[in-house]
Amino acid sequence: MRSFQWSDFLLVSGGSLLATAVLMVVTALIGARVGRHSVVDVTWGGGFVLIALVSATVGTGEAWRRTLMLAIVGIWGLRLAWHVFRRSLGKGEDPRYEELLSKATGNTTLYALRKIYLTQAVALWFVSLPIQVSAVAGDSVGVVAAVGVLLWVVGLTFEAVGDAQLNAFKADTSNKGKIMDRGLWSWTRHPNYFGDALVWWAIFLVSASAWPGVATLLSPIAMTYFLVFATGARLLERSMAERPGYREYQRRTSYFLPMPPTNT
Q1: Alpha-carbon torsion 244, 233, 164, 187, what sign?
Q2: Does the predicted model carry a pTM greater than 0.90?
Q3: 110 CB neighbour count, 10 Å cutoff
Q4: How does pLDDT run across 125-182, given as a tens digit for each residue?
Q5: Which residues contact 137 (CB under 8 A, 6 or more apart)?
Q6: Is 230 helix (H, G, I), strand (E, B) or coil?
Q7: What is the domain range of residue 233?
Q8: Contact call for residues 81 and 105 (beta carbons, < 8 A)
Q9: Do both 4 and 132 map to the same domain?
């Protein structure tokens, strides 16, 4: 059985941190150029793909697991980056970042570097620890990795189908002013965020199939917290709360975990 080598992990983790730092600096320059720091949301998905690529290339763990991790992170991350890019075309700054930058007392760019890009870089590195550890871990328990892949399929389906259903709903001009409550959106108010959370628990399971991947448990917990309580569903709920019909939608539809809609 191959033992975990800390020197190999430090090489992968250091390379991932350096790649993330470069990516965020480039993104910050682009954001300053176009006057829209929400470009970092596109980088979020792509950043995980970059870390998975570095980990797969530099890592010394089992080749099939490194390849598998690169594939599941790559498919998820590139789909998310493309989705966010298309959604943001022709739009201005995200209200979240406008509110954050309004608190700047000095140079706005330096403030954005610290509050937006540095924060995202640290989150990227921490949440991606299962990817990094998996790249240098020892022998795998195949059944655990297989369960992770199955969970990933479910999560990606929820996320992609939820986004597609919402896009189709918004594209229909007859739905203007209405609340999306069809398809997956009738079972959970946030099928895309729910799917995203499942994907990261799946990535954790693939990593946990080999020691010490199980020790990266805090990474999927952190991502789930972001999605449910911090920058994801809870923030969106606050912005939607006063929309006509949204209170009724909240009463009959589960907040996060998919459940049959209730009659009110």
Answers
A1: negative
A2: yes
A3: 11
A4: 999 999 999 999 988 899 999 999 999 999 999 999 999 999 999 999 999 999 999 9
A5: 4, 61, 62, 65, 207, 210, 211, 212, 213
A6: helix
A7: 140-264
A8: no
A9: yes
